[in-house]
Structure formats: structure tokens, C-alpha cells
Amino acid sequence: MKLPERLRRENLGERLIEALIRVCGVSAILFVFGIFFFVCREGADFMFGRLSWRQFLLSTAWYPTSVSNKRYGALALIAGTASVTALAMAIAVPFGLGAAIYVSEFCPPRLKEGFKVVIELLAAIPSVVWGFIGLTMMNRLIIAVFAVPIGLTVLNGGIILALMSVPIIVSIGEDALKAVPDSYREAAEALGATRWQVVWRVLLPAARNGLLAAVLLGVGRAVGETMAVLMATGHSVRIPHGVFDSVRTLTATIAAELGEAPVRSDHYQVLFVIGVLLFTITFAVNLAADLIVKGIRQQ
Amino acid sequence: MTSPTEAAAARVFAETAQGRRNRLAETAARTVFLLMSVVMIVPLLVTVGALVYKALPALSLDFLLTNPSRGMRAGGIWAPFLGSLYLVVISLLIAAPIGVLAAVYLNEYARDTWLTRLTNLAVVNLAGVPSIVHALFGLGAFVLFAGIGRSVLAASLTLAIMTLPVIIASTKEALGAVPMAFREACWNVGATRWQTIRSIVLPNSISGILTGIILQVSRAAGETAPIMFTGAVFYKAIPEGDLFAYGLFDQCMALSMHLFTISTQVPNVPEAVSYGTAVVLLGTVLSVNALAIALRYYLRSHQRW
Amino acid sequence: MGGRAIALALGAAIAGAALLGAALGGCGARQGSRAATRQVIQNLGSDTMVNLAQAWAEEYARVDTTVSVEVSGGGSGTGIAALIAGTVDIANCSRPMTAAEEERARQNTGKVPRHFTVGYDALAVYVHRDNPLVEITLEQLADIYGETGQTTRWSQLGIANSACRSDQIIRVSRQTNSGTYEYFREAILGKSGDLRLGSYDLHGSKDVVELVGSTPCAIGYSGMGYATEKVKTLRVARKAGDPFYLPTLASALDGTYPIARPLFMYTLGPPQGAVARYLAWVQSPAGQRIVAENGYVPLPPGDR
Q1: Which of C24, C27, C34 sits opposite B247 (nearest CB)?
Q2: Which fold would CATH assign to domain A79-298?
Q3: Cβ–Cβ below 8 Å for C54 and B203
Q4: Separation between Cα atoms, residue C43 and residue B295, nearest integer Å
Q5: Residues B31, B123: one domain?
Q6: Cβ contacts (< 8 Å) between B94 and chain C: which residues?
Q7: Subunits with 3+ C-beta pairs closer than 8 A to C
């Protein structure tokens, strides 16, 4: 039996829409691969030809614009990223997890919504404004409090990054704690445990994976941050010996030097290689966090 | 005089040493965690307050409507503000349809296969890509490969891809909140899947979709790195008050880029001007976010299920 | 009610896609006129010149309201690369193009780059205003900044910098692909040699002066136009025994100040139309007055 004209047209329209939906659905995969592909493509010629990985990863001599002796040692830049991220996590993880525990377990319900709103607004602050705060107010504060000559240091960048990563740790950590079944809490309370004992002995171990995922995502955020560290860490290519040294991170190097590297030159391409490195690190971190969370869901 | 029963009861229910330790530990823990939460917020409020205080001399309607002048040391922020508006609107027009339809696919059509898991992983990863890598991608793909050159279009495309996960996540959440019963009722009367989505599921998820869109707007307005190399310029003279000043293939100024430029590359900018720019950017982003949160509450309280 | 919202959303999506399609279809029409009535001149290049270029663009918008000049930094190298690729109207350069670069431009676009001197810049060496040092030679600078240099303390220069408690010389520099960085490196180290890592490599000329102005132990170099009252400008001599000069209009022009260079604007072939008018205006007394206002050295009246 042939369908009436109207129904056949509707059918066709529906199938078109569904095809469009399917394409959009997998678009995220396309974009992620696209990003990796195009970033690799711009740096490929240099990366697979002239780049010495040993020099890149192990040497601190970053002289991409030398007239006579170009060297591309990124170790100092990697150390810059690592030091600022480490300091940021050292501050953000305890405070973030503490806040997550408070919001999830101890907070009176009325305050809870307000608190979550504040955290969400904290997350919304643009990174260039954070950089501006680091460059102006935090800079002067550090000089005044610690009597150091320069306030644009690992400490400055670390504090700013910590403030930027805390919202992620709090919101995902809180999700992780919420995901622990109430039966755990009830069982513990039935045995006479106080709230704090429930948290310390039951919830934290149970939510351990989710909290780890939260920390990993915070790390990913800190590693990938560009504008705030560009403005707050002082731009000095060296391995820091303390929190009052200035450093340059991988992200800041790209942002600072890309505009000035002639297109397709070696310098330009090595900046794309740094981009590949960054993409790989954040991809690995996000993948790990995702697998951990998936592991929880299957429990 | 207490009765023997009362005395016995008092003995039984008296606080033991262990009990007191527990109670003190509990109070200590509660206080510590409360302090941790507060320690993050109070300095931030103080900082924002200081920002606003230093920006006050410059803030006025004129600031918004006049162009930067005298080497960007005076005047206002009209050209950057308009540029940011262009970037936000165009990136929204690109990202919203793709994001909403992608979320529809993930929530309504996708079966639990490896492809779906991979797609979800890709969305999470897209959200985690550093902003400077997005800039590199935009440069390599849109500016160079597609030949669009540095322009409003290339910058908007880069921003759209960057903010896509925000829309997808928000929409997916909203679609998931619609009870299955609604869909089943539709299927029972013979509607196809798309008809169900179109007439029942999407309308009931409008709050989440709008929230996602608003969050995308705030994210796109605040980003600097992705537009630095794909379309934003140091300076461009446009007439004040002209809403159509930028063409699709022109480069533009942007508020976030402008803040970066006057903080790091223009000498002798008066404090009020740079703080003023920071406050306008921060204020815009925060009020857009607050709008999203308010909208979410309003619509959630008016939910019909 | 709900369906209308959906129709609206889809309509917006289709409109957006149509806009995109139309825009991409009109791709390629970059130079020259837009739908708006203003013509666009693209001006890209040296970071040293970017503030100057912005001041010119700002003033020129008042002179000729039909033209809009887009200004970007990026360094001389970027401007030259864009010129070679034919994607920019005017490239700002704080160094001359090399013969190889000019040849590549000719091969790529068929036109020979033309340069116009639009001003002069002297690189000033700054220290904190409480620093007792008043003069320095290029050799001393090479010993402070160079990769093989040995001078790391103020006392090694023979002065007692009482404002600096640690006696350490904090070197402030620019990032490695800046034309200012390259020029400074060439001026003190010659054609080969690199600056020692570990200096504060700042992003902008103004940052250098600000950092030096707030750091008693610091020394830095930047365009002479960026001076503030918090820093002191040193006199510079080529080597020990030579006379020392402050960077001024006179000493930059007659070559007595050792670190001075001309600023160029390059076009592909002889400039036409709006670009030619803009260049003529830049070199005119009106444009050169802006050069002086921004702390650079204007063209002497004879050269215009």
C-alpha cells in the first residue's frame, strides 16, 4: 500500500533531520580529531624532520631566534608548567576537597544553594581578568608581604591557578560524594558514628575514585591555562629554585611567541609541537579521569 | 531530688570520654571545612571589591559608548565591546544548533555502543583542551587551511568549537530530566521519535538549553587566547554608535583582548581605565552567568512534573 | 507553544547556516571595500611600532573617515612574512628586510617590496631611579646580558647600588622573537651570540619599564618613548673611552647614540590609492608630530 503523499514527505523530512542529528552527534569526535590533526599538521614538517626530541625534552636552552645557534630545549618551560601546577594543586586540593566535603555533608540546606552559586560564579571569571588581578593586585601584595623584588612569580601564578581550579574540584568532588549511596551513611550512623566519622571512615574511601577524578580534572585545567599564567608568572625561561622565581609555562610560551613567529618557520612549527605536547597531556589527564569515573559507575 | 530511675538513666546516657572526643572532633572538622570554604570566597570578594573601587572613576555610560582615544589611554571601550558582541553572537549562531542537536543525539538516539562512549569521551576532552591549543587549531584550520584569514568569522568559528561542550552538557542534562513517561505517552499514540522530541521533549528542556546558551555566551565573551591569533587586533578605528561597523571578514577588537593589550603593551595607561575595562568585562560575564542561574531556578520551580 | 519555540530555534539555525554560506561564498573579497562604506587598510608588524601605529590610525580616522586602519603587533618578522604572503597592506618593521626576504616576496607576489622610513627609534637602557649608575658601555652590556657574560652583581660594575639589597643584577629583557630583542642582541653582541637565559622576558615594551621602575636591582632596555619618572635612562658609549650619549632626537639622528635605528613601513610595489594617501600622511608634518608625541624620533624636515 502506498503511503499518501503527505506522509511520505513527512517521512523524508524526518529522515533528513535524523541524519543531521546523527552528524551533529558525532561532531565532537570530529572536532577533537580535527584539533589534533591540524595542530600536528602545522608542526609536522619540523616535528618529523628536524626536531631532536632529546633536545626538546631534556635541554633547558630555549633559543628559537638565535642567529647562529638555534636550540629548542623546552625543559625549562616544562618545569615552569609543572611548578606552577604543583603549587596550585597543593593549595587547591585541600581547600577544594574541604569545601566539597563541607557543602556535601555539613552545610545547612539553605546555605548550600547559595554556596554552589558562588562557586559557579567563581568558575565563570574570565582568565584574562584573573591574569589582570595577578599582574596588578596580587603582584603588589606579594612584594609587600614577602619583601621580594618581583611579584610575578611561581607563587603568584600558583595562587591564581588554585583559585581557578577550585570550582572544578568542588563541583566534581561534591558530585562524587553525592554519588555514594545513602545506605552507606545510614549504616554508619546506625552504628553510632558522628558525621565527621562517617565522612572520614566511610564516605572518603567510598568516593575515593570520584575525588581523584576531580583532582585530575583540576590538574588538567591548571596545565591548560594560558592567559592568567601569561600575565602573572613573569616570563623567565629557567628552572625555578623556589616559589619566588619567575617562570614561563608551555602555554605562555605559545601565546607570547606565536604572534611573532613567521608562518611556517621552524620557530612557528616548534610552537605547534608544544601544542601537541599540551594536547597530549590534557587528553591523557581527561581520559584517566573519565576512566576512573566510569569505573565507579560500574560498581 | 532525682529518683533512682533518673539517676540510673543519667548514668547510662552520660557522655563517655569517647563520646566527648567524637563530639569535639566533629565540631573541629565542621569548623575546619567551613573555614576552608570561606577562605576561598572572602579574599575573592575583597579582590572584586577593590577592582570596582579602583575602576569607579572611569565607569560611566560614556565609557561604554566612546572609542579608546589618546593611544588607548583615555576614552572608552566601544570598539572592543562591539567586537566582543559580534564574536559572541556569531559563535552562538554556529554552536547552538550543533550543540543542541548533538545532545539530542546523545540522549535520545544513541545506543550504548563503543561509538557512543567514544563520543561522550570526545565531548569531555573537547572541554578540557587548553585554550591556546584551540587558538592553534583555529589558526591552522580556519585562518590558513580554509583560507578565511584572520577575521571575525575565523575567530567566531574557533570560539564556537571551544564552547560547544558547554551547550552539549547543559542540553543533555535538561533532556535527561524529562521523564520517560512523557516520551512513552507520545509513542503510545503513534508519534515517531523525532515528532516526540520536537513536540514534547525539546519544549520541556528549554530551560536547560537556554541555560547552556547563556553559559556559552559568558564563556565566549571572556576568552582571549583563541581570538588572539584568529581575528582580534590591537586596534581598529570604527565610528562610535555604529552597530554594523565590523564586516564578517574584517578583524575586530575584543574586550578581553583589549584588557590584555592595555595591561601589557600600552604604556602609561591610567589605573582607572584598565581597572574599568576589567570591571566591565567581569561584570558582563558575571551578570550573564547570574542570569543563567536565575533562569534555571525560575524554570525549575515552574516545572510541570 | 513548545513547537513554536522549536521552529524559532531551527529557523535561527537555518538563518545562521545561510549567513555562513553567503559569507563563505563571498570569501576572498578581503582587501578593499566591505559592505560597509569604509575601506580597510591592514597594518601589521613590529611591536616597537605598534603603539605608534595605533596613534597614527586613531588620528587618521579623524582625517579621513572613509578609511579604517587595522593595527596588529606580532613583531617585524610576522609583518614581513605577511608581506611575503601578500596578506597585508602595510608591514611595520623595525629592521630592514633582508635580500632573501625581498626575493621571496618578489617570487611569491610578483611585486618588489618598497620601504618608507617613517621615524627613528633609540633603544634606551633603563635602571631604577635610585640606582647610582649613570653610564654604561656596549661591552659592559654584553657582559651582563650575553650568554658567556660574567657580570652578575652591581658591585662588579664598580658602583654601590644601596637600593638593591642583594647586589644582584636582575636582567629585564623582551621575548625572543621581538624586533627590539633582536636589535639589542645584535647591537651588543654582533651577528652571532645569544643572550643568557634567566632574564625576565616580558611581552611588551611598557612592561620592561614598569618592572625596572619597581625593582631597584633591575636593568632593562626598551624604546626611548616608554620612559617614566620611575626609571633613569643611562648614557651609552660604544666602548670604554668613547664619549657617552643620552638617547635624544639629535643623537639618534646623527648616529652618535650607538643603539638607534630607523623604523620602516613596507608595501608591495608602489602604494596605490588609500594606502598611498595614508603613507603620505604618516610622513607629513601631521603624522610626524605624532611620532614625537609618542617619544620616537621624527624624520628630519629634509627627509620627508
Answers
A1: C34
A2: MetI-like fold (1.10.3720)
A3: no
A4: 44
A5: no
A6: 16, 20
A7: A, B
Q: Which three cell numbers stand for residue C250?
A: 639629535
- Decide which of B55 and C22 is more confident: B55
Q: In terms of domains, do B114 and B263 share one?
A: yes
Which pLDDT tens digit goes with each residue over A189-233? 888 888 888 888 888 888 888 888 889 989 998 999 999 999 898
Residue A74 DSSP class = -
Q: With respect to residue B201, please indicate whether it lies within any of the assigned structural domains.
A: yes
User: Whose CA is closest to A251, among A280, A267, A230?
Assistant: A230
Residues 63-92 of B with CB under 8 A from A: none
Determine the pLDDT at residue C250.
82
Residues B99 and B134 in one domain: yes
C148 touches chain A (CB under 8 A): no
- Decide if C70 and B100 are in contact by the 8 Å CB cutoff: no
Beta carbons of A65 and C75 less than 8 Å apart: no
* Nearest-CB residue to A236 (from C72, C74, C198): C198
Q: Which residue has the higher pLDDT, C139 or C294?
A: C139
Structural domain of B24: 4-55
Does B21 fall in a domain?
A: yes
Contact C209 B199 (CB under 8 A): no
Residue of A nearest to B262 (CA): A132
B103 and B236 together in one domain: yes
- Exposure string of C176-185, with b = 16+ CB inside 10 Å and e = fewer, is bbbbbbbbbb
Query: Is position B293 within any domain?
Result: yes
Residue A76 near residue A238, CB atoms below 8 Å: yes
Torsion of CA A11, A17, A22, A28, to 10 degrees: 180
Same-domain check for residues B192 and B250: yes
Task: Tell me if chain B has a CB within 8 Å of the CB of A4.
Answer: no
Percent of chain C with pLDDT strictly greater than 70: 87
**3-state SS string for A10-33:** HHHHHHHHHHHHHHHHCHHHHHHH
Which chain B residues have a beta carbon less than 8 Å from that of A251?
A: 130, 132
- C236: which strand partners? C136, C245
Residues in C closer than 8 angstroms to A76, CB to CB, are 197
Residue A2 is classified by DSSP as P
So where are chain A's domains? 5-49, 79-298
* Residue B156 region by backbone torsions, left for phi larger than 0, else alpha for psi between -120 and 50, else beta: alpha
- Residue contact A98–B37, C-beta within 8 A: yes
Same domain as B92, residue B44 = no
If asked whether residues B194 and B230 sit together in one domain, one would say: yes
Q: Verify that B65 and B51 share a domain, yes or no.
A: no
* B305, part of any domain: no
Cβ-Cβ pairs closer than 8 A, A with B, add up to 254
